[in-house]
Amino acid sequence: MKLLSDLLSAIDVIELIGSEHKEISTLESDSRKIKRDSLFVAVRGYNVDGHKFIPLVTLAGAAAIVCEELPEILDPAVTYVRVENSAVALGKLASQWWGNPSRKLALVGVTGTNGKTTTATLIYEMARMMGYKAGLLSTVCNYIDGVAEPSTHTTPDPLALNELLHRMVVAGCSYVAMEVSSHAAHQHRIAGLQFAGGVFSNLTRDHLDYHKTVEAYLAAKKSFFDRLPAEAFALTNIDDRNGEVMLQNTAARRYTYSLRSHADFMGRVIESRLDGTLMSFNGKEVEVLFTGRFNAYNLTAVYGASSLLGWDADKIAVNMSLLVPVAGRFQTFRSPSGVTAIVDYAHTPDALVNVLDTIREITGTAERIITVVGAGGNRDAGKRPIMAHEAAVRSGRVILTSDNPRDEEPAEIIRQMEAGIDDEYRSTTLSIVDRREAIRTALALAKPGDVVLVAGKGHETYQEIHGVRHHFDDREVVADAIGKLG
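User: That's the sequence. What structure does it adopt?
Assistant: Structure tokens below.
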């Protein structure tokens, strides 16, 4: 039980009707979970407005309601708390409910279109290599000092998020690395959290089904940096044209990283192979188990963040060579006959270009690349022909297939992708709706020395078709098919 007055001390109250001297049993934003003496926060969501459920939560026994607009009929047994923004209030209340766990941790947020998962995961791994207990909040999985917790969203809702952070505090964690999605920033899911640092990777077209414009998408990312406190650090990729934008209004200490320009943290690719890269970080040469310039950027960000967290410079350099790739991120499989398959999460045009350019640089020609790629349903349809075009230009052969069609027809998504295939590439493009068959066909077509890229799903272990999730793991299908090549 918590005192309502103690909870309300964390938020800006415009109007209070009723007593604040009440004991609260639970804090909820889901009307279905309301119990007697609960505090309900009516949030205006993307699809549902919580204000519509105020009469229901009143009947269910809610003791207090936080809202932006008071209902027409007020129940004298209920305390009504009017605020400017319920979503912001929910984040602050959730933090207060769980004892403000982020203030007891060094919390580092990573945002950007591509590279969030890899960068956040490697900061988490680096912390553990340095001898600290650490936590991770990511798309792939959440971890509390090495113990896995299922992940359903890139950034959880404020209640789940603060509960996880509280459990990390209880487990003795000192550091936490966290992906910060544009949705989470825009929806104020991170309100109330205290960050020790923020990292920006890059910004390319994505999530326009939600944000509508690139400018709005950029603004959501930037809002995370705008809210960083003065004692935090803000580390940005200066090679990205939006890197400087992220730093414009932040109160945090400003730092940059780069592969091309002068920066606080400079990474350089000396030699690249399919199984690793020789790099230097601020002049220190390190052999890393990662491939591609996009990974070189991620690693440079990790090097910079690790340095800004105050960890020993020599240990950081040694540990960089011991870090291993994240599951489903440029994950490599090889057949005895010499065919290489790569599974990667690339699901945006820019990410696909980065992976294909990396493979082409190493193989020396696009003709040796066979790309299997699809596009998700109920998401930004505008990127579908762009992804197909980029794959065709950079590959010897392309197979368009299903990704997660969700509620859309797979064949229609593929048809929209086909619109991006120029006439000169139609003869080298196939369309196979069944993803398993598409992967098997790609590997059957491959000759010794060829590279098959299976893009889009990476670490995911399901395929969502007509709203139903079925078990499907690109890595399992690739491993099975490549094992039969001999």
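The longest strand covers residues 265-273.
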